[in-house]
Amino acid sequence: MTSLRTFLASTAFAAAVLGFTAAPSHAVIIDGTINAGEWAGAATFTIGNGGGTASFLANQSYVYGAFDITGWTAAMGSGSQGNLLGFGVWGANNSYPTAPGVEFQQSTTQAAWGNDGSSGTMNGLVSAFRINAQSPPAVLIPGDLLAADSFATGHRVWEVKIPISSMAVGAGDTIWLVGGINYNGQQHWYPDYYITNHFDGYAPVTVAAVAAVPEPSTWAMMIVGLIGFAGTGFMARRRKNKPALMTA
């Protein structure tokens, strides 16, 4: 029992000193439902015209958006007034639609964003994905882009995960987020205002650091080293506690 405690203590000490920690993760699940605590720590903004709230999280690889569209009720239906859901990410304030940036839009019809082509269909909705303002279909929907919506709460909820690796952002960088939704014959922007074809309501979000995770081979070497370290300590303790041989 003593040797086990010694080994565990040595392992914990070595891990703390070497700083090996898993990359942080959050509980965001892209399923069109906002669960309690799922968006804790997110930057949250008002969707204009009393439409609801928008929440954003970001790391060096992805931006996550949750749009709780309280004004778009289930009774209106998913195709209400164009059904446009749009979300964009830019590397500089007021840089839309110039580079660098990515944006994603979904609708029941591509006419909602000007009939300039489609990047494909996701969850039954025609979708457009753009990198640096390049129109679809030149850019297809990446495999790690996720989007889901539902009326499970009685109103529209849209959750999105957009890859931003093409923007070459780093930990501590600031990115700006903006988007719009169309329903009930009105445009609603998030953040909550849009002036003379120029966004002044960008939502600044700081990109979070992502801790490095050791490669499997590194973990194996580390574990072998720790076992050896613990074994050496155990043998030394055993020699110390072993009684001396009787001599004549």
By DSSP, the count of extended strands is: 12
* Shape by Cα distribution: globular
Q: What pattern of helices and strands is seen along the backbone? A: HEEEEEEEEEEEEH
Low-confidence stretches: 1-25, 217-227, 244-248
- The helix count comes to 2
Give a brief description.
With 248 residues, the protein is α+β, with helices and mostly antiparallel strands. Helices cover 17% and strands 33% of the residues.
Explain what this protein looks like in three dimensions.
The chain has 248 residues and is of the alpha+beta class. Helices cover 17% and strands 33% of the residues. It has helices spanning 2-18, 216-241; strands at 43-47, 52-58, 62-73, 84-90, 101-107, 120-122, 125-131, 146-150, 155-163, 174-183, 186-190, 203-206. β6 and β7 (125-131) form a beta hairpin. α1 packs across α2 (216-241). The chain starts with a helix and ends in a 7-residue tail after the last helix. 29% of the residues are buried.
Give keywords.
single chain, seven-stranded antiparallel sheet, disordered N terminus, five-stranded antiparallel sheet, 2 helices, disordered C terminus, alpha+beta, globular, 248 residues
